[in-house]
Write a structure and sequence with these properties.
mainly alpha, 3 domains, 2 strands
């Protein structure tokens, strides 16, 4: 080993390979860095005469020409051995000096590799490869930082977001007041009076639809931009209210379907007797309130209406010839289902009355 070998050990392997190729050293493909440095040291020492003019190897040959350590002609001063602590004493089987020498040599090689004197410029291909590798490494690191720690954390985050969204929807639904309106509508429709009102509205609405014709007013222009065709506008012809063709059928339906049954339900009132307890003129406050609620007997109302419907629209009872057969037939054709539909409505009222009485008895 020559004195120039530490200089070669400081270099990196690509630099050693470049020097070997420049000095025409062959058979170096299978050598590692240490063996390559030793082979290159031997090759350069043997060919010092021809390679000493290479400027890039000036440091090596300068170091090679220097005397080796321990061979200086100057007389060494007597070495004074200092006392070493007990922990630094040699122990059998260990070689601390060699380890210190190897570590110092590695640190020297690393310092030499970092120094700009021994760095060789990279070509364009190596520089582009280095830049692309650093870019890929930065992308991988940023992607790794953005990834969640585990799927369980992702699932918990989704569950929390879903629960928060559900709570927001429930709060918005409650604040909108739809629930209160729903309960109010349900309470209003859950009574026999509401059922009777719905039946009468169906019959009366069908009567008005048949008796009041629609009159053409105008036509809206078509809008091609939104594909809206022209629409005719029709309004109810209210001039029919001045003719007998409207009032005769409507009055017949009003008498047979509402007014006369209500009169019968007011005077023949079994629920009124049950509410007052047959006390006559003297009534308590509670019995008076119950009597006010039972001012019309729904059972009597529906039975009276069924009898009138059958007699008027089946037997053509004209109330002392006040209404013609044409009027009776027109009412019968205007109501949904005719006289059969009106009898069905009375049957629904009777069943509802009996069911409500059973519920009150329980």
């Amino acid at each position: 080993m020559s004195s120039g070998l530490p200089t070669l050990n400081r270099l990196r392997k690509p630099e050693l390979v470049e020097i070997a190729e420049r000095t025409k050293l062959t058979d170096i493909s299978d050598l590692n860095k240490g063996d390559l440095a030793v082979a290159l040291d031997k090759h350069l020492s043997d060919n010092q005469a021809t390679l000493s003019n290479d400027k890039k190897l000036a440091d090596y040959f300068k170091r090679l020409a220097a005397p080796a350590r321990g061979e200086s002609p100057v007389k060494r001063e007597p070495r004074v051995e200092l006392a070493t602590p007990a922990s630094e004493k040699k122990t059998p089987g260990r070689k601390p000096k060699q380890r210190e020498t190897a570590s110092s040599r590695d640190s020297e090689s690393e310092d030499a590799a970092k120094s700009p004197a021994f760095k060789t410029p990279l070509n364009k291909a190596q520089a582009s490869v280095a830049r692309s590798s650093s870019r890929v490494r930065s992308v991988i690191e940023s992607t790794t930082q953005q990834l969640p720690p585990s799927p369980a954390i992702v699932t918990d985050a989704i569950d929390r977001q879903t629960a928060r969204m559900r709570e927001g929807l429930e709060t918005a639904w409650t604040d909108s007041g739809v629930v209160e309106y729903q309960h109010a509508l349900r309470s209003a429709l859950s009574s026999l009076k509401a059922v009777e009102t719905i039946v009468l509205l169906l019959e009366g609405g069908s009567m008005l639809k048949e008796l009041v014709p629609l009159r053409y007013l105008t036509t809206t222009p078509a809008v091609d931009a939104i594909h809206l065709p022209s629409l005719p506008i029709k309004v109810p012809d209210l001039f029919v209210l001045l003719s007998g063709s409207f009032w005769a059928p409507f009055t017949l339906w009003l008498l047979s379907g509402l007014i006369l049954p209500l009169i019968a339900a007011y005077f023949i009132n079994l629920s009124y007797q049950a509410a007052t307890g047959g006390s006559g003129a003297r009534r308590s406050r509670s019995s008076s309130a119950a009597a006010d609620r039972a001012s019309f007997d729904p059972l009597t109302f529906n039975i009276a209406k069924a009898l009138l419907v059958y007699k008027v629209y089946v037997d053509h009872l004209g109330f002392f010839d006040l209404f013609s057969h044409y009027t009776i037939a027109r009412v019968n054709a205007s109501v949904p289902g005719g006289w059969g539909g009106m009898l069905t409505g009375t049957a629904i009222g009777v069943i509802g009355t009996l069911y409500e009485a059973i519920l009150h008895r329980q």
